[in-house]
Amino acid sequence: MANPPHGGLLKDLIARDAPRRKELYAEAEKLPAIVLTERQLCDLELILSGGFSPLEGFLNQKDYDGVVNELRLADGNLFSMPITLDLSKETIEANGVKPGARVALRDFRDDRNLAIITVDDVYKPDKQKEAKEVFGGDPEHPAIKYLVETAGEYYVGGKIDAIDRLNHYDYVALRYTPAELRLHFDKLGWSRVVAFQTRNPMHRAHRELTVRAARARQANVLIHPVVGLTKPGDIDHFTRVRVYQALLPRYPNGMAVLGLLPLAMRMGGPREAIWHAIIRKNHGATHFIVGRDHAGPGSNSKGVDFYGPYDAQHAVEKYKSELGIEVVPFQQMTYLPDSDEYKPKDEVATGIRTLDISGTELRKRLRTGADIPEWFSYPEVVRVLRESHPPRSKQGFTVFLTGYQNSGKDAIARALNVTLNQQGGRSVSLLLGETVRHELSSELGFSRVDREKNIARIAFVASELTKSGAAVIAAPIAPFADSRDQARKLVEKHGSFYLVHVATPLEYAEKTDKRGIYAKARAGEITGFTGVDDPYEIPVKADLTVDVSTSNVRTAVHQIVLLLEAAGLLEQL
Ligand SMILES: Nc1ncnc2c1ncn2[C@@H]1O[C@H](COP(=O)(O)OS(=O)(=O)O)[C@@H](OP(=O)(O)O)[C@H]1O
């Protein structure tokens, strides 16, 4: 039999309320509704499934105070993380949220009512206190930033009636509720299960340490990665789940099961470790691996760690007797090349050669396409990671040329287009000012607002194309620094952005204008013309400045190619 849930009873609200589903659904349609944020939705999912047992809703003030001050619910049960429904004053007033009221909780993704909360109380938390007691108080801590900058100023406590589970469209079969996982363990005949929490890809060291933990306890393994919200900058869960799936057959005789946990992590170190243990206990695990700096967010901008490396292990140790799940301290594994094996670091005799690849080093090797040895990871895992992290030579980028009309930017853009097409390896998209004006922005004029809109559209398209690995060449006038900065920001989410200032002087652009556009502008036939009666803000931090009055198009293209080459973007693998 699986481990009993925290508090003794699995609070599977979906199963509990299934007989009343129709009724609750109809009631919710008539109630005011609160549209939950992504984080609140993650919390609700685990309240509904019993993952947060013994919770049956969002914490009221009594429970909240207990959890913040003493890691305890009002009924005495150990609980370390305040699970709260934070709302703004406006939302509370607009929806009549007050004690006794029933309010629907809605999924922002598909507008479905998932639950009804019966409001117990509405209270204003002492956020400074919560920040200090729960997360340690460093204002740079991501959960504290969220608390201060994003969370609403009031909390609403109350029990929940469950209407329906959330809809998921990715990896549905791997999303086990606690009840489903318990049933699965039962079917497999597993009574001892070591759960492994992760928000990162898994490699050989992780496989070794989980197998060791299982061997020592004669148990099986539950790989239980977080697919809700993790630390910004983490590898996306789609890639990670493919990694875990690739790794799974490397466990002998089906000794491991993969289940996905829709948790919104807080990166709360010691408090989070206790919370994680409780959640795994609710999912039926009997053992839980807690590693060095478990669920820690690293260090702040001054390089100071938010938590000590063993704070989390000490915290779970402290509450060992009432946790009801055996915590297995995570031993950091290292590779011994001379004997081709992994061993816990602290068991390696001095003088023995060891090898490790850090996360930073791994990311670098993925970026450059450098070798990732088999002693570190399995080829099938590396293949998945490489698909999601193509080397620089396969990554998208945007070259954004800005300058006066007839500055030569269009000629450079066209020449760069054929140069990159000649090189091959990527699709190349050319977004000339006139093409965009014709295809995307035909209703826009040349006021500041319209120009900003035009550049924002170019930036959006460039960013999407960059994401899919294309080379993008954009060449609008883009006279405003702010718009250019915004474009950079958007594109850099997905790849490199190079701002090339085509600094050909206005006089030259005007003198060589064979189309007579400047003449028309001077004659007042075109108004608000850049350089004539409209401003051009000269870029202060262009990645490259070229000038066709003193140089030529070919040289400018060559300079851009050199820039791209230096960044490894044009390497032929
Ligand atoms: N008032 C005014 N100011 C600047 N440019 C004007 C204006 N009116 C029309 N045009 C013609 O529009 C083309 C420039 O558009 P852009 O999209 O590059 O401008 S912007 O980046 O949105 O500022 C460019 O067209 P092409 O010469 O065909 O490239 C300009 O000649």
UniProtKB/TrEMBL annotation:
Region (N-terminal): 1-169
Alphabetized Pfam families for the sequence: APS_kinase, ATP-sulfurylase, PUA_2
Annotated ranges, domain ATP-sulfurylase PUA-like: 4-164
Protein name according to UniProt: Sulfate adenylyltransferase
Keyword vocabulary terms for this entry: Allosteric enzyme, Amino-acid biosynthesis, ATP-binding, Cysteine biosynthesis, Cytoplasm, Methionine biosynthesis, Nucleotide-binding, Nucleotidyltransferase, Transferase
Organism for this UniProt entry: Pleomassaria siparia CBS 279.74
Signal peptide (residue range): none
Subunit structure: Homohexamer. Dimer of trimers.
Residue span of region Allosteric regulation domain: 395-573
Residue ranges of domain APS kinase in the record: 395-547
Job description of the protein: Catalyzes the first intracellular reaction of sulfate assimilation, forming adenosine-5'-phosphosulfate (APS) from inorganic sulfate and ATP. Plays an important role in sulfate activation as a component of the biosynthesis pathway of sulfur-containing amino acids.
Activity regulation description: Allosterically inhibited by 3'-phosphoadenosine 5'-phosphosulfate (PAPS).
Catalytic activities: sulfate + ATP + H(+) = adenosine 5'-phosphosulfate + diphosphate; adenosine 5'-phosphosulfate + ATP = 3'-phosphoadenylyl sulfate + ADP + H(+)
Recorded name of the encoding gene: MET3
Positions contributing to ATP binding: Q197, T198, R199, N200, G291, R292, D293, H294, M333
Chain positions of site Induces change in substrate recognition on ATP binding: F330
UniProt binding sites for 3'-phosphoadenylyl sulfate: E434, T435, V436, R437, R515
GO CC term (a single one): cytoplasm
Main location: cytoplasm
GO biological process: one example: hydrogen sulfide biosynthetic process
Lineage of origin: Eukaryota, Fungi, Dikarya, Ascomycota, Pezizomycotina
Site (Transition state stabilizer): H203, H206
